[in-house]
User: Fold this.
Amino acid sequence: MGQESMSGRDQVSFRLPAETRARIERLAQATRRSRTFVIEEAINRYLDLNEWQIAEIEQGLEEARAGKVVPHDEVVAKWEARRAGSVD
Assistant:
């Protein structure tokens, strides 16, 4: 990572495919935002989603280790009952 600036923000540099950079440019222009804003927003959304997903997986694994599981046959029976009651 780059040097931390006076504002508490780091500068990072990396290479992007030309088409990705063009997409960022188009989105920045269309939304009247800076490229930095668009990139930062994309990174934050990616991190939020993946951090949430990892936390949910870890919670599920913890529940499984604690024996908080539903037998497969019971899940299948519930889905089949739900499907039988649905209108296609």
Q: What stands out?
A: Residues 18-85 form one domain. Residues 35-65 form the longest helix (31 residues).
